[in-house]
Design goal:
By secondary structure, the chain is an alpha+beta fold. The protein has three helices and five strands. The chain has helices at about 5-25, 40-60, 110-120; strands spanning about 65-70, 85-90, 130-140, 140-150, 155-165. A five-stranded antiparallel sheet has the order 1-2-5-4-3, with helices on both faces. β3 (about 130-140) and β4 (about 140-150) form a beta hairpin. α1 (about 5-25) packs parallel to α3. The protein is globular, with a radius of gyration of 15 Å.
Length: about 160
């Protein structure tokens, strides 16, 4: 499966799940927009726990200040696939495991990656990219695919998890 085709099918899934996952991430009531850096001590602790959980599950070491912007199981998918998606933002560079190819700095692959990441970031705006990186790796019986957009403000990363078959 080509990267662009993979991104198109994943973007469709992300778009369908965006509203439901927004509720999962932000909940109800008076809270800040999804993806804003938490300022309340309880929110900071909850975000740190969420980032640690993603790190433990995926094997990716995240720099301090990383925020989980979105998390979803995609809804309606057969649980046996083990699908899950995380969208994260870090003001510092994230090291993506299993890099495939050279960084994309322009062209259709950068555009497809940017569209996919923007769709997964819920309500957080992703500025113009400097580059896009893709990686694939395995850990704990799961296969992971990561798409990272590097900008002047920081890194925007979407990780997809599938059961390794």
């Amino acid at each position: 499966m080509t990267i662009a085709r993979f991104h198109r099918s994943a973007l469709c899934l992300v778009s369908v799940a965006a509203l439901g996952s927004w509720l999962l991430v932000t909940g109800c009531g008076d809270r800040k927009k999804a993806g804003n850096t938490p300022s309340d001590p309880a929110q900071i602790l909850a975000n740190e726990a969420a980032v640690k959980e993603v790190s433990d599950k995926t094997g990716v070491a995240f720099p301090p200040g990383t925020v989980v912007v979105n998390a979803t199981d995609g809804g309606g998918r057969d649980a046996s696939y083990g699908f899950f998606l995380w969208a994260l933002f870090s003001p510092a560079s994230i090291t993506l495991p299993g890099l495939r190819g050279d960084p994309e700095t322009s062209g259709p692959l950068l555009d497809a990656s940017l569209q996919f990441v923007r769709g997964a970031m819920a309500r957080r705006k992703v500025p113009e990219p400097e580059m896009a990186l893709d990686g694939e790796w395995k850990k704990g019986g799961f296969a992971f695919s990561g798409t990272l957009i590097r900008t002047s403000q920081g890194d925007y990363l979407v990780i997809q998890q599938f059961r390794d078959r």
